[in-house]
Design goal:
The complex is a heterodimer. Chain A is an alpha/beta fold. Chain A contains 15 helices and 19 strands. Helices cover 30% and strands 16% of the residues of chain A. A five-stranded parallel sheet of chain A has the order 5-4-3-6-7. Chain B has a single domain, classed as Aconitase, domain 4 (Alpha-Beta Barrel). Chain B has a seven-stranded mixed sheet. Classes of the chains: A alpha/beta, B alpha/beta. At the A-B interface, helix 2, helix 3, helix 5 and helix 11 of A face helix 4, helix 6, helix 7 and helix 8 of B. Bound molecules: iron/sulfur cluster. The site of iron/sulfur cluster has 14 residues of chain A, from helix 4.
Chain lengths: 469, 194
Amino acid sequence: MAKTLFEKVWDAHVVAAESSDTPAIIYIDLHLVHEVTSPQAFSELRERGLKLRRPDRMLATLDHSTPTLPAGADGERPYANAEAKAQVSQLEKNCREFGVELHGWDSDDRGIVHVIGPELGATQPGMTIVCGDSHTSTHGAFGALAFGIGTTEVGHVMATQCLLQRKPRTLAIHVDGQLPVGVGAKDLILHIIGEIGVDGGTGYVIEYRGGAIEAMSMEERMTVCNMSIEAGARAGLIAPDDTTFAWLKGRARAPQGSAWDAAVERWRALRTDAGATYDREVRIDASKVRPTVTYGTHPGMAIAMDKPVPAARNAVEKRALDYMKSEAGKPMQGMAVDVVFVGSCTNSRLSDLREAAHVLRGRRVAEGVRMLVVPGSEAVRRDAEREGLHEVFTAAGAEWRVPGCSMCIAMNGDLAQPGQLVVSTSNRNFEGRQGKGARTVLASPATAAASAVAGRIADPREYLTEVAA
Amino acid sequence: MRPVTRIHSRTAVLADENIDTDRIIPARFLTTTERAGLGKLCFNDWRYQADGSDNPAFPLNQPKAKGCSILVAGRNFGCGSSREHAPWALLDYGIHAVLCSEIADIFRNNALKNGLLAIVLDEAEHRWLLANPGIELSIDVREQYIALPDGGRIRFQLEPFARHCLLNGVDQLGYLQQHGDAITAYEQRVERAA
Ligand code: SF4
């Protein structure tokens, strides 16, 4: 029978089939762990006297509560508070005690969990991947079935390497045509969520397909899959292809030698068969997408920056516009900016930093605007510094930081003040997400950089021509 | 987990759509390594004013909402992050059931695993409950209906396994552990194939 990509991955991981009374038991190939959602699960294991079933299938890192300023002369890291510091040491202790590979402070590979999984080659096509983190959907860019779970389920995977799951429905998003010059993956995914809504994917696993997706780099595909959860979907996937294999080849945890060739041959079968059907299909015309930003307090309130903000249709939308100080009938373009954040698992990879640097090179961040650039991992930081990107940022007046989630979730002390407008390359514009009262506008790295220079929300296409030195 | 068979309470209403997990418990409180005691942080930035006093505009601060353990919320409640701190905070605050026309997947999953009833209703019933805050409801988990004060009933469906676990206080980890042999067999099969 013809199967979708999702069904192929799902079927290959069924330990016990589902029945009307019981969900399926699904095997998990890779379990990613960070400091925020794991401590209670480790405690539970300890209380029950259980061990990890497969510590070799786990990978841990520190990212959410970690400071992005370097350690002081005394070696002390500037944690936001004692609790954050205790949370980090708790994970260090748990990993030691339970034998989990931790990419901690002393690792050259530490970084945001969804950045380092692929970088290390731990993320591979056809795998099931989970993490106590909703943006686990990022890993779907490799044709893996990857989704976020709660802490109770983190405990389930630790103890049994399995999860109880009902099979989700499938949603195909066909992205035909070509993205215009100066319009990128972030614009596309904001546009898609604007079209289908923040709950448009609830109950579904999305498969992104079509010419515009096939033409994307792995970094761009990760940006798209990353935000699947912002449409309510558990996971988003893209069929692996030569772009995927070329990106993975030679990475530390990827198969090597003849095992690599065998793996690629297996992975090539991971595509939706002709004749397979989805529960729902949506078509998007890539050529219509323009630089897109959010204007409200959830990612579905997204619009091309030069289009007028729609009028509120109800009290909640009215409240969202009031909170954002967005004006119905006026475009977002031109709105005054206080802070610009380039980072997060959506847009903190080398290509994102290059995109921002391309706009900033030879220019200055506007007077009164604060700009933070936070690489997604130590590897990204190294590569960026090798290319001199950090110098472009600092010469422009931006702050160049140590890897972490930073202002995406504002747990580590990197945050905006009440009322400040933040143009952010992250994934959530919820009220207070970047600090109590902070107003978040989601955007691409190019838009973020252009807005930093202009001091207002600006179209990056106006900055894509090289300036005279 | 303690069995959950019946919940009887007046309803409190938060009519906003898309109430996300950051509103239920802001991220800056996630540095905790405990799961207890999060109720005081539930809806923190909505519930308190800058000086720490109760915000009178927050619907759950109104006297008639006090002590209600059934929350009727606007569509797509619990969207956003996978933090289980959200149901932990709600339960500790005293909310034992959330009624909604649509509930975000991960939140619903997390809620049910902690004995917080997350019930999806059809739109007309949901609209009616939103419009009638403070009515007395009785939720019967076994028979899957909500009894209204006038004797009427709203039927609902829970995923059968989740319902079984709620009614019997079944520990899902224990259930998974019973399948240890099947898991081992699966691992062996995959390793042989590789
Ligand atoms: S960068 Fe933001 S979205 Fe990504 S894992 Fe960190 S906090 Fe979550």
